[in-house]
Automatic annotation (TrEMBL):
Domain Pyridoxamine kinase/Phosphomethylpyrimidine kinase as annotated: residue spans: 16-265
Pathway: Cofactor biosynthesis; thiamine diphosphate biosynthesis; 4-amino-2-methyl-5-diphosphomethylpyrimidine from 5-amino-1-(5-phospho-D-ribosyl)imidazole: step 3/3
GO terms for cellular component: cytosol
Cited InterPro entries: Carboh/pur_kinase_PfkB_CS, HMP/HMP-P_kinase_dom, PM/HMP-P_kinase-1, Ribokinase-like
Gene Ontology MF, one: hydroxymethylpyrimidine kinase activity
GO biological process, one term: thiamine diphosphate biosynthetic process
Catalyzed reaction equations: 4-amino-5-hydroxymethyl-2-methylpyrimidine + ATP = 4-amino-2-methyl-5-(phosphooxymethyl)pyrimidine + ADP + H(+); 4-amino-2-methyl-5-(phosphooxymethyl)pyrimidine + ATP = 4-amino-2-methyl-5-(diphosphooxymethyl)pyrimidine + ADP
Naturally occurring in which organism (per UniProt): Amycolatopsis panacis
Keyword Zinc: no
Protein name, entry field: Bifunctional hydroxymethylpyrimidine kinase/phosphomethylpyrimidine kinase
Family annotation (Pfam families): Phos_pyr_kin (PF08543)
């Protein structure tokens, strides 16, 4: 008997030793969507619920080799990036994605989560690398998914309400991605969590209740990999983001305490049905 292979999604991201963010969050989320996860590891972080103690990056050529190995043999239905650590890795990833035909202008959707720092404020990207994300990855992206801290770093726009969220989304579109999702989780005083999705022609507000919990570690990675899973399974961008928003709400609602600090969001609810 030969079983049909599931769809595949590739994450190009760092490892979180605490298991709540990074490739661990991505693989948990791919699994919860019935998608086979492929990995190109970019960095190894030393972190737990209290924060990131440090990281070391993987040589750029090894990142390239991982992407080539899986793309040439197994095939990639959708890809995403998370922590990329250095400008050299970003440059290498951009060139390799072109070689294996992933990203804007190809049939394989590509999501860029422009991870710059952990929620505890520890840098996950060397300083000079932000410009490389803007110029080398955004033009190749089907969708970019910054949080409000990343929006400020990338555009200088301080989002405080719906109007500035729209202004930020327009500024981000100028960098060349097909779609932008400005996530609103960091507007802590707002009653609802509103994420704004736009391609310049169509703008969709995705709103949901703000769940009262401190355990939101890995939320951004989980959201981006839920979108990537839906894209791998054939959804278009608005449908993928809308499904991911409902998914992450449940993950936040079922987040659990682990360690003395911030616990992880939980994709396990999906396995319980
Ligand atoms: N307390 C919360 N309740 C419900 N949804 C949340 C909560 N915090 C964040 N989210 C959602 O989780 C996703 C990631 O949010 P955000 O915190 O903005 O990004 P990041 O995790 O990258 O910092 C978004 O879809 C956001 O709306
Ligand atoms: C290895 C690694 N990658 C990414 C992050 C940031 O993850 P995110 O989903 O934004 O979660 P928080 O850091 O906001 O909890 C990370 N910490 N480690």
């Amino acid at each position: 008997m030969t079983n049909a292979a599931p769809h595949t999604a590739l994450t190009i991201a760092g490892s979180d030793s605490g298991g709540g963010a990074g490739v661990q969050a991505d693989l948990r989320t791919f699994f919860a969507h019935g998608v086979h996860g492929l990995v190109a590891l970019t960095a190894v972080t030393v972190q737990n619920s209290l924060g990131v103690q440090g990281f070391t990056e993987i040589p750029a050529e090894v990142v390239r080799a991982q992407i080539k190995a899986v793309a040439s043999d197994m095939g990639v239905d959708a890809a995403k990036t998370g922590m990329l650590a250095t400008a050299e890795i970003i440059h290498t990833v951009a060139g390799t994605l072109d070689e294996v035909h992933i990203g804007r202008g190809t049939d394989t959707p590509f999501v860029v989560d422009p991870v710059a720092a952990s929620m505890t404020g520890h840098a996950l990207l060397r300083e000079e690398a932000l410009e490389a994300i803007r110029t080398e990855l955004f033009p190749r992206a089907t969708l970019i998914t910054p949080n409000l801290d990343e929006v400020r770093l990338l555009t200088g726009v301080e989002v405080t309400d719906g109007a500035s969220q729209r202004q930020a989304a327009e500024a981000l579109l100028e960098f060349g991605s097909a779609w932008v999702l400005v996530k609103g989780g960091h507007l802590y005083d707002a009653e609802d969590c509103v994420d704004l999705l736009t391609d310049g022609a169509e703008t969709i507000e995705l709103s949901g209740p703000r769940i009262a919990t401190k355990n939101t570690h890995g939320g951004g990675d989980t959201m981006a990999s839920a979108i990537t899973s839906a894209l791998a399974n054939g959804a278009d961008v608005p449908a993928a983001v809308s499904a991911a928003k409902r998914f992450i709400e449940r993950c936040v609602a079922e987040a659990y305490p682990l360690g003395a600090g911030v616990g992880p969001v939980s994709p396990f609810w999906r396995l319980r049905g």
